């Protein structure tokens, strides 16, 4: 596509060295530049794209788009007012607006996003419906699986993935939409058909500063449903048992058909409510009473939090137009995400569970779910990340120490902070609730080892915080570390 065509309707401040060439590709990463590419010189939290312009040009970039003029630029330099929006505008046009050819589901909230995407994917597979998935663990679309560096990629990557999905004749796409991505413009220009709100609990306040800002970030996804070039019905699927979910549901400015899900009430004209809930260590059963029908389901997922995830999946399926009976019949085939309540094989007379829980609310949900196993004791291993929301650290200790029989407080991605300083913040929560049922073990592998040594017959060890992650971030480096792998090694050698 000609550069002049891509620049139509773009707010340009200045142009130099213009040459109307055929553009072969787009990238904001100089390492991925080839002949005929546009390079977007983005400024990020850790680097400035302007530093890589010479490298991009040497690899064949024919145009640099930047927010300030590049001196001595050897190729076309387009200076724009808003480079993030410009990249989204150009990507949408370059890839021929693939979002308009898909039914796109955006899932946002603090907890449950990844589980919902995996659960939906598994039931659709039984129904022979293909779907692309973009989320925390991997991006999966058109027979491609890519490890996910971010929950929600940059807009340019998203449009490329959507284009590949369309070309593979796939009609549906589900995407985890993080609060960061909504604020930073990563999902600009994407027309969603359904938006799901799971819950909102304290997290990411290092970025959002307070809960109201955090909520307002999530709300962007729902307000964006007004962008309806497809001229189809939009859906807002909302957990109304959550305080912020109810607030969102009551918002009269959401331009969509609202579907509530709950374990307590039937809110609004269209709803799905879980009744007669029965939880045990192997499965969960409940009755779905909904605007679409009523039926009993039994699933191999445990814990009340997974009932909410399953209700969200049910509502998404109805929004996709799948018949009630087909959904209910196939619920038994639903599987969850890796690293979520995942049992580590051991052959021991106690159980080791790995889970991604890294907020106080998620930790609470998981520990309460494990209580359904009727363990002799629950032993929890957890830590808190460095360079992240410090205010949640004592909250996690309060939850862990209050609900567990014993706790090992350790490290979890300390990044550029001193692990001992992080743990000191965490420990304050245990002190505040007057608990002394914990031990500090800074090294995470050693903490898991000591938890295993401490365990007795009938106990459950919860190793929380990392789940599917296979690394520790120490300083600015990622070092291989996998909770499941480490636990297996310790169990096999003890």
Characterise the protein shown here.
Strands 9-8-7-10-6-11-12-13-14-15-16 form an 11-stranded mixed beta sheet, with helices on both faces. The protein starts with a helix and ends with a helix. The relative contact order is 0.08. With 494 residues, it is α/β, with parallel strands linked by helices. It is 32% helix and 24% strand. The chain has helices spanning 3-6, 53-58, 83-94, 113-126, 155-167, 179-183, 205-208, 211-223, 243-249, 304-319, 324-330, 360-371, 392-403, 419-432, 444-454, 483-492, and strands spanning 12-16, 25-27, 37-40, 61-66, 76-80, 103-108, 131-134, 138-141, 144-147, 172-176, 194-197, 235-239, 257-262, 271-279, 284-290, 293-299, 342-344, 351-355, 378-384, 406-411, 438-440, 460-464, 471-474, 477-480. Helix 3 packs parallel to helix 5, helix 13 crosses helix 14 and helix 15 (444-454) packs across helix 16. The chain is globular. The model has no long low-confidence stretch (mean pLDDT 95). The longest helix is centred in the middle third of the chain and has 16 residues, at 304-319.
Strand content: 15-25%
Please tally the helical runs, counting DSSP H or I stretches of 4 or more residues.
16
* Mean pLDDT metric: 95
Largest sheet composition: 11 strands, mixed
Helix content: 25-40%
User: What is the radius of gyration computed over CA atoms, rounded to a whole number of angstroms?
Assistant: 24 Å
Give me the secondary-structure category.
alpha/beta
Low-pLDDT stretches: none
Q: What is the spatial order of strands in the main beta sheet?
A: 9-8-7-10-6-11-12-13-14-15-16
Counted beta strands? 24
Distance N terminus to C terminus? 62 Å
Shape: globular
């Amino acid at each position: 596509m000609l550069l002049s065509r891509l620049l139509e309707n773009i707010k340009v401040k200045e142009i130099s060295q213009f040459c109307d060439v055929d553009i072969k590709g787009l990238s904001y990463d100089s390492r991925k530049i080839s002949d005929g590419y546009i390079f977007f010189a983005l400024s990020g939290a850790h680097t400035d794209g302007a530093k890589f312009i010479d490298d991009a040009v040497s690899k064949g970039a024919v145009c640099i788009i930047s927010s300030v003029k590049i001196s001595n630029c050897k190729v076309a330099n387009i200076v724009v007012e808003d480079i993030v929006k410009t990249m989204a505008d150009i990507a949408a046009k370059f890839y021929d607006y693939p979002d308009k050819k898909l039914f796109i589901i955006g899932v946002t909230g603090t907890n449950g996003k990844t589980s919902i995407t995996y659960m939906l994917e598994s039931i659709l597979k039984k129904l022979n419906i293909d779907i692309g998935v973009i989320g925390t663990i991997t991006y999966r679309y058109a027979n491609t699986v890519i490890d996910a560096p971010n929950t929600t990629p940059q807009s340019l990557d998203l449009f490329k993935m959507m284009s590949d999905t369309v070309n593979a004749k796939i009609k549906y796409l589900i995407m985890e939409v993080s609060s960061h991505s909504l604020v930073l413009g990563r999902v600009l220009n994407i027309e969603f058909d359904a938006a799901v709100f799971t819950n909102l609990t304290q997290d990411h306040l290092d970025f959002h500063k307070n809960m109201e800002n955090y909520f307002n970030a999530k709300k962007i996804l729902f307000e964006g449903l007004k962008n309806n070039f497809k001229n189809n019905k939009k859906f807002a699927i909302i957990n109304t048992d959550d305080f912020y979910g109810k607030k969102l549901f009551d918002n009269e400015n959401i331009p969509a058909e609202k579907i509530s899900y709950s374990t307590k009430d039937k809110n609004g004209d269209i709803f799905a409510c879980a009744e007669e809930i029965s939880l045990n260590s192997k499965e969960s059963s409940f009755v779905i009473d909904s605007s679409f029908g009523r039926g009993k389901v039994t699933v191999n997922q445990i814990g009340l939090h997974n009932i909410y995830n399953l209700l969200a999946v049910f509502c998404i399926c109805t929004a996709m137009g799948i018949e009630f009976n087909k959904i209910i019949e196939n619920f038994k085939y639903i599987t969850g995400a890796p690293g979520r309540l995942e049992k580590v094989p051991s052959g021991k007379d106690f159980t080791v569970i790995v889970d991604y829980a890294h907020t106080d609310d998620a930790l609470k949900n998981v520990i309460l779910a494990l209580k359904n196993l009727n363990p002799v004791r629950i032993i929890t291993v957890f830590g808190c990340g460095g360079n992240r929301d410090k205010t949640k650290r004592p909250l996690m200790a309060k939850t862990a120490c209050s609900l567990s029989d014993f706790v090992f407080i350790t490290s979890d991605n300390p990044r550029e902070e001193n692990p001992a300083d992080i743990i000191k913040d965490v420990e304050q929560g245990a002190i505040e609730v007057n608990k002394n049922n914990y031990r500090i073990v800074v090294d995470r592998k050693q903490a898991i080892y000591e938890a295993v040594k401490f365990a007795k017959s009938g106990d459950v060890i919860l190793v929380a915080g990392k789940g599917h992650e296979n690394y520790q971030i120490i300083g600015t480096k990622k070092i291989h570390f996998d909770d499941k792998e480490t636990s297996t090694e310790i169990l096999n050698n003890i």
